[in-house]
Amino acid sequence: MANESLYLVKLQFKSDNVGAGSMVLQLAVNPATGTLNGGAEGHILEGTQHSPSFTASASGHFHSTGYGGVTKVGAVTGQAIVSFPAPAIGSFEAPFTASFGVDNSWEGDGTFTVGEHTYPCKVSLLD
Predict the structure, then answer these.
(1) Number of domains composing the chain
(2) Which residues form the DUF1842 domain (predicted)?
């Protein structure tokens, strides 16, 4: 792991449930230190009228598991700015966390939390 260079990944967190959230998490991955740094943007309460959007900066760590199909696990934390579209215009800051367990292709399962809303999702690598 120490011989690898810094690289970027773009992960989609998506649920098929109405009222759930989705996001894209873009991370710089440093395999030598196991650190993750990046940002997220997405929506919470999707499928509802006037669903809020958010942007977040986040940092954390990942680990190689060497266990079955889940070869990487990671988690990031940060702060999100949640914005409401018209007619309820406004923004607020909320805690943000995300975690995932993926295979070598960066496909698997994860969750993310914005404020009090937590969403279990499928995770997939975006080009």
Answers:
(1) 1
(2) 6-113
